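Q: I have 364 residues here and want to know how they pack in 3D. Can you give me a structure?
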Amino acid sequence: MSAKSPALERRIAAEIAAHGPMRFSRFMELALYDPAEGYYASGRASVGRGGDFFTNVSVAPAYGEILAGQFLEMSEILGHPENFTLVEQGANDGTLARDILEAFRKKTPQPPRFTIIEPFAALRKKQEQTLEGFTVDWVASAGELPAFHGVHFSNELFDALPFDLLEAQGGRWHELLVAGNEKFAFEKSPDPGEKTDLPDGFRTERRTGQSEQLQSIASKMQSGFLLAVDYGMESAELLAPHRSAGTLACFSNHRRDTNPLESPGEKDITAHVDFTALARCAVDAGFELNGYTDQHHFIIGAAEKILCELDGKAADPAAQKKLRAIRMLMHPETMGVSFKTISLTKNLPRPAQLTGFRHARDLL
């Protein structure tokens, strides 16, 4: 077993010994969210140049400024409700929240009410340090939110939800289970699942808990938007022939591997979001699909005012730095195509299209 997290590996092995082979979603839940040694829950996850992987927030505060502009649009569409609320879930160390609140300070004298959903003490402590000087509330789960009018938003939340692994065999899906003691390995469930016409050996992922997350948020949102940013694609693309190995990946120190069973708790475990499935779950929870597009096209619309302000400021180093950051966010070979943005709504007073979704495409 790994010398890094032997206690976590022993507890996983003990659970397998007691109950038999483990569903991968359970293994992933322990590897990422075990309060003491999980990769996220323990605060071990690190983002940026010196961390394990890059995300939009790593690039520059410009990303938070772009989102703040969208949130102001959303507030206007909702009729500027009293106590307009922003709810962030998956806030990591609080950097995105800080960038958004800094942008609001510059844009309006009336800041939004800001709440972070954070179940883990180690991450909340980091967020409190990052957000010192701002007024922020914390709750441990969406179920603890008060009823609100506003926006629930997330950056790379849904890709981190646990998922099960499926492999096609004989025209049926079979679940891949985690077995073993000192060394974990996959074994195929003997019980066949749903039918499939994909060839034997084709693997894919199926998320668990997504519907419950969305239902919990919808139950607290009186009116507003759910804005989710993540990397992924539509269902048909995920099941394309060239993705026969699935999209599961692990990251540590900017190195990618495909062995999630090695060193649980020491690295990120993720897979692409199925945005078709996400949208269907959201509709079932009471939301309406408002827009879906890749990040490149989202920023073309959402950052239009910012880009106009930067026009003609070639001699301004700060302006040029911001422009370079926006270009990186849009670049098709970095984040512009792999990241997608989806907007869902509930009880809007009128139909409305956000500027970030002027170039939206069909999803359902």
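Q: Anything worth noting?
A: The chain has one domain: 6-357. Residues 62-77 form the longest helix (16 residues).
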